[in-house]
Structures are given as structure tokens and as C-alpha cells.
Amino acid sequence: MTKDESTSEFQSNPSIKEKGYRPKRSKAVRKRRKLVHKDRLGVEIYVLPNLITTANMFFGFFAIIRAIRGEYTIAAYALVAAAVFDLLDGRVARLTKSESSFGAQYDSLCDLVSFGIAPGLLLFLWALQPYGRIGWLACFFYVACGALRLARFNVYENMKQMTDYKNDDEDSAFFYGLPIPMAAGIVASAIIAFKDLGLEASKSPIILAATIIAGISMVSNFPYRSFKDVDLRKSLPFHYLVTGVGIMVFVAIKPEITLFILFVSYASLGLLSGFYMSLYRKFFKKKKSV
């Protein structure tokens, strides 16, 4: 009996179906299915960078637990620790040449926990709970925008790999949309700064507006400096060192306040430059073309 005859008999005879009969598969198909099944059971990954990524998620989850207990300052410092591990995992992967698709996807999932869900919950419990439905919807908007920001970034990176796209100087020097760790940094530094200054955060309209603006900034196309084009391993002009020393001195004056100023300045400069570029394209380029 040929393959076509056995398939037609299987389709036309319902009694054969009841007996559990299936058409025979070729050896190549069976071999391929075995390989896929084996790959699922025995996925090999790079342990060191993914352990560092797990530490990022650990501190994000720790921040959630502390926020639920009302220990907002400890939760804020836990977000800072998560950000440190988020910076380390990518650099360790590049230094050890252990970058992988698994690591990239895992990093995004951990980032959503540490810099999306944790800051969103922290914002609600710390300041926006008195607003009721408006408060938790604003926090949900922040979390959703963070998830969309991560998904868009992953799609863009996958497209670059599929097309063998090489980064130019402009592409590597900028993020498009506020990075989600920076948005979480604003939340963490705001909590620390408010406590140091003795300010009341509960039902603050400024924090409510800032939560929505942070969400919009993450999904915008506004350019934010990534500083990936600055290679500190190579020789650089002298003013780079002077700038670094100046930033260190500025932060050391009052870290609880100055870190908040730095985070807000970074986010604000991106917003201002984005608005300026959009207005320039809309009005000035039209006048030149006319």
C-alpha cells in the first residue's frame, strides 16, 4: 500500500480512527521530531550572565515584598540594586562572549518584573493609593508602557539580526524612548529624595502626572543618549575625565537628592529634545520646502 492509499483509507474509514491508527511517517520526519524533543529537554545556556540577570529579578521581587510591607525606602534601594545587576549582565555576557537569544528574552522578562511591576506597585502604595481607581490605572499605564517598550526593543533587535544590520554611530548613541530602568530609577530616587526632604507623597498630583509622563516617554520615539558610543577602554579627550570627576563630586554632595536630579534631568532632556525635533520637522522643514 502506498502512502497516498494509506492516508485516504485513514480519512475514509472512521473505524480505523477509533482503533488509533495513524499514517506512517518517513524516517526523516521521525528523526527531526526526536531532535526537536531532545532540544526542548536539554537546552544549554550560559550560566554566569543569566545568574546575574536572576539577581536583577530577585531584587525586583524583594522590592515588591518590601513595598507591600510599607517599607518604601528599602524597596527603593532594592530597585537600585536591581539596576546595578541589569547593567552588569549585558557587560559580562559581552566580555565572556556568552550572548544568546535566551539571555536576551530572559533579561526582558526580568526587567519587566524589576522595572515595570515593582515600581508600578511601589508608586501606587507609596503615593497614588488615595486616588483610588485613577491611581491604580495610572500605575497600570506605567507598567503596560514598560512592557510595550521592552517588546518593541526586542522586535527591533531581532530585525537587525535577521537583516545583518550593522549599527552606525547615531544608532548606537541613542535609545528611542525612555529606557525602562531609567524610569524605575526616577521612581526609586524620588522615594529616597522625598524621605530625605521630609515631603509628603500621598495623593500628590505631581507624582500622578509624572507617572503618566514616564509611561508616555517609554513608548515615544524621543531620542535618549545611551553612551554606548563612548568606549572607556580607549583613549579619550581630557574633558571626558573632567566631566566624570564633576559628576562624582555632584552626586557626593547629597546622594539622596542629586541622584533624583540626575534621573529627572536625563528624562527631561530627552523629552525636550524630542519635542524640539518634532516641531522642527513639522514647521521649519515645511517652510524650507515651500
Rg value: 26 Å
The CATH first-level class of the largest domain comes to: Mainly Alpha
How many distinct helices? 12
If strands are numbered along the chain, what order do they take across the biggest sheet? 1-2
Give the structural class. Answer: mainly alpha
- Assembly category: single chain
Question: Strand portion, in percent?
Answer: under 5%
Q: What's the total number of strands?
A: 2
Major pleated sheet: 2 strands, antiparallel
Any chance you could write out the topology, listing elements then pairs?
Blueprint: H1 3-12, H2 14-18, H3 27-41, H4 47-68, H5 72-95, H6 101-128, H7 133-162, H8 169-173, E1 174-176, H9 180-197, H10 205-219, E2 223-225, H11 238-253, H12 255-289
Antiparallel strand pairs: 1-2
Architecture overview:
- The chain has 290 residues and is mostly helical.
- The chain folds into two domains: 3-39, no CATH class; 44-269, Four Helix Bundle (Hemerythrin (Met), subunit A) (Up-down Bundle), CATH 1.20.120.1760.
- Helix content is 77%, strand content 2%.
- The protein contains twelve helices and two strands.
- The protein has helices at 3-12, 14-18, 27-41, 47-68, 72-95, 101-128, 133-162, 169-173, 180-197, 205-219, 238-253, 255-289; strands spanning 174-176, 223-225.
- The chain has a two-stranded antiparallel sheet.
- Helix 5 (72-95) runs antiparallel to helix 6, helix 6 packs parallel to helix 9 (180-197) and helix 7 runs parallel beside helix 10.
- It is globular.
